[in-house]
Amino acid sequence: MELKTSILNTSKHAPVTILLIIITTLHLQIQLSESQQAYLNNDQLACGNNDNVTKGFVCNGISSSCTSYITFRSIPPYNSPPTIAYLLNSTPSAIAKLNNISDVDQIDDNRLILIPVACSCVKHGKNRQGYYQKNANYTLKVTGETYFSMANNTYQGLTTCQAMMAQNPYAATNLTAGETFLVPLRCACPTSEQKKKYGAKFLLSYLVVSGDTISSIAAMFGMTDQSIVDANELQPNEVIYPYNPLLVPLKSEPINIKLGSSPPAPAPQSDSPVGSGSRGGGGGGSSKTGVYIGVGVGVGVLVISVAFLLVWCSKKKAVSVVKGEEKGDLKRPESESAQYISLPGSYSNSQTTKSSSADLGGFKSAIGSLTAYKFREIEKATGNFSDGNRIKGSVYRGEFNGDEAAVKILKGNVPNDEINILKRINHYNIIRLSGYCIHEGNTYLVYEYAENGSIHDWLFRQKNYNSEDDSQTPPVLSWKQRVQIACNVADALNYLHSYINPPYIHKNLKSSNILLDATNRAKITNFGLARTIQSEDESGVIHLTKHVVGTHGYLAPEYIENGAVTPKLDVFAFGVVILELLSGKPAVKVKPSGTNHGGADDLLFVVIRRVFEGSNVREKLTEFMDSNLHKEYPLDLAHSMAQLAHKCVDRDMNSRPSMAEVSLTLSKIYSSSLDWDPSDDLTNTSSRSHSISI
Questions:
Q1: The overall pTM is greater than 0.85
Q2: Which of 42, 72, 358, 589 could hold 602 in an S-S bridge, CB 3.0 to 4.6 Å?
């Protein structure tokens, strides 16, 4: 009663002030009582997501600096103590000693390596929030790398693109080879609770891989399941994701740990379900009952305060409504404006039009944060859909507030799957969907504009090239441009297959669905056939479909014959795209009659198989290569790239490489291509200095 009386006697701003104080106090109580770190939960995969959890582990430990440990899986070129130390700013001798190897040993691929690091609290940002981190430096090797690829590919998830973007001066687009980046590696120091409860002297950032469980990780390092659950603020049955660092409290230095040889996870307990993100019941001592009671009391006080505040606000609002009615300036009721999207650049004012009054149905859940345009804006942007602005088919060039865009007209059912995936992904090599409009049964989707068209146009437009000067030849993609395009597409497909949840298969990759921006950077488009990778694949069951769709020449044999849908479907199609880039020939040879449904001899993936059959491979490859390149390419690297494509189009899908392997190989080829000089003696290519092992 005294609390209620004091609140009633305060000023008009007091309830808000009191509420903020209660919330702050409650938050502080929770933080102090838990003193743990929040789990990333795959939030780092969307570089536009700036939640604090993506910036690093907060400085809540006993010390502002400490010795910490991180894990890294060896992969070329980072497969020896010196190269790993160079990447992670450690010392080769310390890595060698901790892992019981020589400081010059080459390490087996994918072996888990422990690295000691000096972890420190660093404050940055507007609020000067402190985050634990170990600073490393990385020099961009090739133009085309992104914050995302550096964080999740090169550093395997030990940092995040959000943390890198926050601590580097370079804009997220158009990163240039040679630029040096600060890489804040995620590490942490033990809290007083971890020291008291589990005897923790160190914290280790463990990179989870497929098949890991809380129990197996705990057994590996001799800790309890509960210590890991608590350290990462996990919930019951919460899934843990590959390449998301998981903090593991350690009682001593991790010496002589048998990495990767932990026993299988125990069977689920009735009171503590165990899964890939299990809350193991392996002991760990005291419960959190006292914490929960304290938090519960705080929440109770908060609820009472909020209820009282709502009563106070409702009375104030009623007075405001009466005043508003008197002035005649009431806003439109929410029920009439619910279809609008309130975003910068969107139009959510009180004027309704046909384009926004349609029943969006299931589309409303898909549009999310997209900009809502009025039909008259779409008309104006495209010049009333003039032929001069037509790009191809039902796609038009448009201009919105000075920015170019592509407007795609769809009739009938709206492709919610395509919209759902495009609004979720954030990758520089995937075309971006930015807005929409619905008008008289048609849907207008507004995409990022790719100025230079598709690679199909670049490779095969020679016959249709129009120029006022008949002596002028059409522009041709150079060798380095072709390799860069292949790298861009591989990076995007690897992102779709491995770095978003759930993963996606594009299913319709072809040269006409790969666009080029003003700098000839490739962007995948047309996700109308994309689908998620089914979870049943994990149990060895391949998803089959009777509805086989796609473009002849790009379809994998297992898909045509059995309807098998796996990521290797994209790998096969990408192999065909590489062959198009190398040869300048279409996936299927066009017959004189105009049909492209010829025999096996007319399929590009069959032709490359014959190139690699028997002897004289290099001579046959030279004949296979695009004559428009005028032999201005390194034959060794062309051979490596053709060999990679040959593996991608293998008839046996299990013999094809993964997109991660493809992306890594192409990165090496591109890096070597940057060192190649067109003035080299191209006819004498017996040297293997540029060759890349596949």
A1: no
A2: 589
